[in-house]
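Hi U.,

Before I forget, here's the chain from the pilot set. I'm dumping it here mostly so it's searchable later in email.
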Amino acid sequence: MNHSAECTCEESLCETLRAFSAQHPESVLYQTSLMSALLSGVYEGSTTIADLLKHGDFGLGTFNELDGELIAFSSQVYQLRADGSARKAQPEQKTPFAVMTWFQPQYRKNL
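Structure:
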């Protein structure tokens, strides 16, 4: 890390976090928006399911217009709707809020 006299603490922190996330992608959470935005009524987003999967293989969220729960597991994204139906999400569907990560189990057990 090269710190010059003009480097701010904020820049240094950002540089450190970028380096860490590049070395440890399993420790990074990707979030498409703020929960406060969702709670304030922002129900339309522009992030597609295909875009989400570039940032992780495991996560939770919702779909535009709050059209069901978004569950991502093993690089598959599912839409669970209020009527009880479940289906695989389409790559072009969009989300106003989701959180994704690259899942790395710490323990494994054969059953």
